[in-house]
Write a structure and sequence with these properties.
alpha+beta, 7-stranded mixed β-sheet, 3-stranded antiparallel β-sheet, 10 helices, 42% helix, globular
């Protein structure tokens, strides 16, 4: 065992995603040496489409489960793992995320967050949505450990990186047929990124610490411990409007998408007012939330929702190339692309309250 550069335990073990138990038991020898191997139980989590996730626990105390995340194929080229480790440490210190136990050759082990992942009904409930808004507001007030001011958001650099990973065509003939029939040309994808950047950057949305992937499956609710966010693969400093817009886009679901679940304006305004009240308080801003504040954020969030859907297009296409997880990433991109164009003109046409002389 050694220490990583970030001071985290590094264990020289490789976990086979198709046969994880031997590698998991090797990890537990270091992390939970008091556990008897024959009593350790294993749980395979479903729903993740970026990595494989497993859990080790003793039957008498399931809340003390150790989670083992095995990185997806070629994910090092897509996710800055050193930055991810740093993110875990920042979030745990701020009581916004689980404790990171160790790194191993192809993944990480971290603390289990007890509770249930919320579903698409719970995400809109009067009991749950204020807790999500509060937790996001708290996340958005976190500062870099080094105290430096963040001047640039990660959104468009990341989108451009993903764009460069997309091939002009796929080797699999059926995949390539679907790709050519449903996704525009490589050059057109690049033009869409440029247009979004031109339209969204001038909105001057604050650059804050963002989760960037707040689907219902990444939000855990427990009556004893409140709300917790999990899975920080996509976490980086980004536009406030994107993080909220992404959350609203995720109301559609992942495995089976229903874009009619995108929240109506009435719900959004309630959500945004709750968020702004918490964000002002947590940021030390002595200001009441006005209707104009909420309306302005509504415009910004819905414009950035377009970027969220297009980000999903690019993410799905690069996953189609690299991932070995059994999931129709191309189908995911096709659906996201359809929703992007369905909403594009409507959302880009939204005007600020001051422009409407309200």
């Amino acid at each position: 065992m050694a220490l990583s550069e970030a001071g985290v335990k590094r264990i020289n073990v490789t976990v086979d995603e198709n046969n994880p138990e031997p590698g998991a038991l090797d990890l537990m020898k270091t992390l939970r040496p008091e556990w008897m191997a024959k009593t350790i139980q294993f749980k395979v989590f479903t729903g993740g489409i970026s990595n494989k996730l497993f859990g080790c626990y003793l039957p008498e105390n399931t809340r003390d489960m150790v989670l083992i995340r095995v990185y997806g194929n070629k994910s090092k080229s897509m996710v800055d793992r050193a930055k991810e480790i740093e993110t875990f440490q920042v979030l745990f210190k701020a009581k916004c995320g689980p404790e990171l136990h160790c790194c191993f050759n192809n993944g990480i082990c971290y603390q289990y967050v007890p509770g249930e992942t919320i579903d698409l009904d719970m995400v809109k409930s009067e009991k749950i949505y204020p807790l999500i808004a509060n937790k996001m507001a708290k996340l958005h007030t976190l500062k870099p450990e080094n105290g430096k001011q963040i001047l640039n958001a990660g959104l468009f650099p990341t989108m451009k990186k993903y764009y460069q990973m997309i091939p002009r065509e796929f080797e699999n003939k059926e995949v390539n047929r679907r790709f050519q029939e449903n996704i525009p040309s490589y050059d057109q994808l690049g033009k869409e990124i440029e247009e979004l950047e031109t339209k969204l950057v001038p909105l001057n949305s604050p650059i804050v610490f963002c989760h960037n992937d707040l689907s219902s499956g990444n939000i855990v609710y427990d009556e004893q411990t409140d709300i917790a966010f999990i899975d920080f693969d996509e976490t980086f400093f980004n536009y406030q409007g994107f993080d909220i817009g992404n959350h609203f886009c995720e109301f559609a679901g992942v495995h089976v998408m229903d874009f009619d679940n995108y929240p109506q304006k009435e719900f959004q305004l309630k959500w945004l007012k709750t968020y702004l009240s918490d964000w002002y308080t947590l940021s030390g801003v002595n200001k009441d939330v006005t209707d104009e504040d909420v309306e302005k954020l509504y415009v910004v969030v819905n414009k950035f929702a377009l970027a969220s859907d297009f980000y999903g297009v690019l993410w799905g296409l690069k996953q189609t190339v690299h991932s070995t997880i059994d999931f129709d990433y191309l189908g995911f991109s096709i659906q996201k692309f359809g929703e992007y164009f369905r909403r594009k003109q409507e959302f880009l046409a939204l005007q600020m309250p001051s422009d409407l002389n309200l």
